[in-house]
Design a protein that fits this description.
- By secondary structure, the chain is of the alpha+beta class.
- It has one domain.
- Helices cover 31% and strands 31% of the residues.
- The protein contains five helices and five strands.
- β3 and β4 (117-127) form a beta hairpin.
- α4 crosses α5.
- The two termini are 18 Å apart.
């Protein structure tokens, strides 16, 4: 069984929220690990939306990101966690980004106290200088300290310090 991490997620969608929602609903239909549990969001002007939520990571939430957003040049050969139906919804999302100058940005903080793991990450999909959809990924691991527990996981500073000093985190 994989260690399960807890991720807090912020998703910003510009000019592609309808297509992202279709992709998310299709990709998560039979999923065990989610990209975001909260999928009932309001789509505003310019086909845009802001979503905050949470999800469990498979070992680390970055694996969820990699599973839901495979490399663009290999999607037909290696679709990651995506079904054939989800691959088509993903391609539709990418086409919307290309055609409409859309942007998907996912930022997250990831935590698993039993293995003293804290990480942050960002995925951006947007139209590049050639006019094609491009993916940029950034991941960063952080030291497991009381300060970082507060900064990245929302723990109260006294609770985080006490947990570490008392050895309540193994």
């Amino acid at each position: 069984m994989a260690n399960i991490t807890e991720a807090r997620i912020n998703i910003s969608l510009t000019n592609c929220a309808n297509e992202f929602k279709e992709f998310l609903d299709t990709a998560q239909k039979d999923a065990y690990y989610f990209l975001c549990r909260y999928t009932d969001f309001n789509i505003g002007d310019n086909n845009s939306a802001e979503i905050s939520g949470d999800a469990d990571g498979q070992w680390a939430f970055r694996r969820n990101i990699e599973g839901y957003f495979p490399e663009l040049g290999t999607i037909d050969k290696d679709p990651g966690w995506l079904s054939a139906e989800a691959v088509e919804a993903y391609k539709k999302l990418l086409q919307s980004i290309t055609d409409n100058g859309g942007k998907v940005e996912i930022e997250y903080d990831d935590l698993e106290t039993s293995i003293q793991y804290i990480a942050t990450g960002r995925l951006t999909i947007e139209r590049d200088k050639r006019g094609e959809a491009a993916i940029e990924r950034h991941y960063e691991d952080h030291d497991f300290t009381a300060e970082n527990l507060v900064k990245y996981s929302g723990y109260d500073k006294y609770e985080a310090k006490e947990m570490i000093e008392n050895g309540e985190i193994s």
